[in-house]
Amino acid sequence: MKFEDIEIEDVDFEAMLEESFKKSESRSDLVTGTIVKIDEKDNLAVVDIGGGRDANLNLDEIKDEEGNVAFNVGDEIEVVNQGRGRISYKAALSRVALNEFISEYDEEQEYIIEGVVTKKNKGGYVVEVDGLEFFMPRTLSYLSSKVDPIGKKVKAVIVKVDKEKGSVVVSRKELIERDRAKTEEIVASLLENKEPVIGTIKKITSYGMFVDVGGMDGLVHYSQISHKGPVNPSKYFEEGDEVNVIALDYDKKKRHLSLSIKDANPDPWSDIDAIIGVGDTVTATVSNIEPYGVFVDLGEDLEAFLHVSEISWDKNVKHPKDYLTNGEEINVEVIEIDKEGRRLRVSLKNLLPKPMDAFTSEYRVGDIVKGTVTSVTDFGAFVKVGPVEGLLHNQEISWDKSKNAKSELNVGDEVEVKIIKIDRDAGKISLSKKALEDSPVAAFAQNHKVGSIVTGIVKDKKDFGVFIALDENVDALIRTEDLHPLKFDEIEKGQEIKGVISFIDPNSDRIRVSVKRLERQEEREAMEKLNLDQDDSMTLGDAFGDILKK
């Protein structure tokens, strides 16, 4: 029941009621008259109401549903004399029905009516119920003067019937005060006992549920539904469901009863260690899917969070909905229990076969495989091979050092690569694309050895030395200490430098050249040539002989 339109006034009810009855008698006399004329043009009938008096009756009052006049000239008809030559047939019908109701009224029985306010006067209101008009004094209406009552549906109880005067008085106030007393009794009982009671869900909203407890509605806020925390009530309940509730508080001014479902049920967190432990495998139901993870219902009024990173061993999970659906049952492993924060974390991937185990059972270092590029970064590309992803580093893209992952590859490309390293413990796979091609350094090494004199063009300068190009995709390093007699500061890109190979390793694709060693090597070669140019017949004895002769 609504109370916002209640207004209480101190008024002399008896005097007002008597005044209302007098007015009713003076203008609503029930008489029997005779129709003397029917004038369809002016839409009226002239009725002789006795005493030499004629009165006009609106013809619409005696027409049937098809618009035909139901009476003829000479017919007797009961009407209510409304004064000033006006009468009403419909009011007479209502008056007759009211008299019949009054005659059959049982004072031992309570009558609760539901009708519509049709009229108002200084004393109160007329409430029409199935064609009967009852009087509701203003002080018994609990209707505010600020509210227009006409057309308002009201519920009231009959408090007085005057058979002599043909009037019925009803009271809305009586029912409201009864309801208020009942409400206070229910609230007092709920708050005093603090025991769970059974209630029936009447309405579900986005912010909670209205629950009927013994004829009174209370609100279960969405934060008071479950020990899991705030939940959407429509996901767990339906209107008509019975639930256990406990009263929390009652606001007398707002007449608002607060209820709790979660306080009426045991708190699982009070004995969580006996219910679940880290490492346990449990069956859960997917209850809510978000981009960052999934909430799962473990039962026992417990909810856990399954982070997106714990759904699959695949590191490229774009959205959990690609793997799970609401309502789906899954097995998960408990990986964290935060008692203080009342939070549980679980993992799905921990119960799935590890991709690295599957990979190493099928592939070995040196295998040539095909994979799909899943992502491209500044340092290389990740390629999915079977159940895992391997790194194809920029250095392993091509023997041409100007090429890298971003210049050569796109996500979705299928590439053929060679497995060059498997780190099972770290879960890392290293791949190479250039390993499938002949090494330019290996080809160069077939014709050049340590000690070979070469000429290269300066490509780059670093603090530790100078890089020179010896051939296509064949570079060499001249360390700073090996540049003598050249001066580091005077060397420019594009300059031609001659040196000798001091180190060459085709497997690591590395060559070092030394200018300083070239100078010593050239001196040695010149000495050897000089020796060769001398007389081969001259012996050591000859040489000493010549000296002795001197």
Protein model, in words:
By secondary structure, the chain is of the alpha+beta class. The chain folds into 6 domains: 27-95, Nucleic acid-binding proteins (OB fold (Dihydrolipoamide Acetyltransferase, E2P), Beta Barrel), CATH 2.40.50; 105-176, Nucleic acid-binding proteins (OB fold (Dihydrolipoamide Acetyltransferase, E2P), Beta Barrel), CATH 2.40.50; 194-260, Nucleic acid-binding proteins (OB fold (Dihydrolipoamide Acetyltransferase, E2P)), CATH 2.40.50.140; 271-351, Nucleic acid-binding proteins (OB fold (Dihydrolipoamide Acetyltransferase, E2P), Beta Barrel), CATH 2.40.50; 355-436, Nucleic acid-binding proteins (OB fold (Dihydrolipoamide Acetyltransferase, E2P)); 440-531, OB fold (Dihydrolipoamide Acetyltransferase, E2P) (Beta Barrel), CATH 2.40.50. It contains 9 helices and 30 strands. The chain has helices spanning 13-27, 89-104, 172-193, 272-275, 355-360, 405-408, 440-445, 515-533, 540-549, and strands at residues 29-39, 44-48, 54-58, 76-83, 86-88, 112-120, 124-129, 132-137, 153-162, 167-171, 197-205, 208-213, 216-221, 242-251, 256-260, 281-290, 293-299, 302-307, 329-338, 343-347, 368-376, 380-385, 388-393, 414-423, 428-432, 453-462, 465-471, 474-479, 496-505, 510-514. The strands form 6 sheets. It has a 5-stranded antiparallel β-sheet. The chain has a 5-stranded antiparallel β-sheet with strand order 8-7-6-9-10. Strands 11-12-13-15-14 form a 5-stranded mixed β-barrel. It is elongated, with a radius of gyration of 53 Å. The chain starts with 12 loop residues before the first helix and ends with a helix.
